[in-house]
């Protein structure tokens, strides 16, 4: 997914499924010419309708689940970057030396996330260690500062709260990067296509053009659905993925 653009991936997945379906239809009618008579169309139509309905429900559930997961992944990234930006703003109430130390630590963290951890997430193998040192440096910067005024104490408490939220969101982000569609759902999504598409071969029609149009249309619809499942199953990989741009915007932009 990281080496192919979405249009190329669509051509391979959808085009491949349609081509195989059309080839299968041609072979089925060549081996069994009697299918063209449509003698069993009523039975085939009922069976195809039943299987298509069940398969459609399964695909809809899978797609909605994956879309929700992708949306949650984007929200986690936005939350983590927001808490980091709040830490930068809150640290402005600290003495210059402490503020500089905190900003350096945050800068190292966002660079580690975007430049080290993100490529690993795109490959599906995220590591906590990629940002562990930068995270420790942010905690060290806070622990080394002893606020004196009430204003400093208030902003110090807020910064501690924000960094704890960053820890939680980092764990959530890495968990999202590891998640994938359960094997049973993959079998239902991809295996269902192996049931629905071959059933269209049995629907008889004397017009070869009409038969191929029917089979190709069903195969294309199934292909696009499976492409959506494939793309959404990896929210940090491919063209359609969550980018690290949030760590380069707002109060964090000055670190780039």
- Approximate shape: rod-shaped
Our measurement of the CA-to-CA distance between the termini, rounded to an integer number of angstroms, reads: 28 Å
Mean pLDDT: 85
Give the amount of beta strand, in percent.
under 5%
Number of strands: 0
> Structural class, from secondary structure content?
mainly alpha
Could you explain how this protein is built, in words?
The longest helix is centred in the N-terminal third of the chain and has 50 residues, at 41-90. Helix 2 runs antiparallel to helix 3 (96-122), helix 2 (41-90) runs antiparallel to helix 6 and helix 6 runs antiparallel to helix 7 (208-232). With 256 residues, the protein is mainly alpha-helical. The chain has helices at residues 6-31, 41-90, 96-122, 129-143, 150-178, 183-201, 208-232.
Brief synopsis:
This protein has 256 residues and is mainly alpha-helical. It contains 7 helices and no strands.
Helices and strands, with pairings:
Layout: H1 6-31, H2 41-90, H3 96-122, H4 129-143, H5 150-178, H6 183-201, H7 208-232
Helix pairs in contact: 1-6, 1-7, 2-3, 2-5, 2-6, 2-7, 3-4, 4-5, 6-7
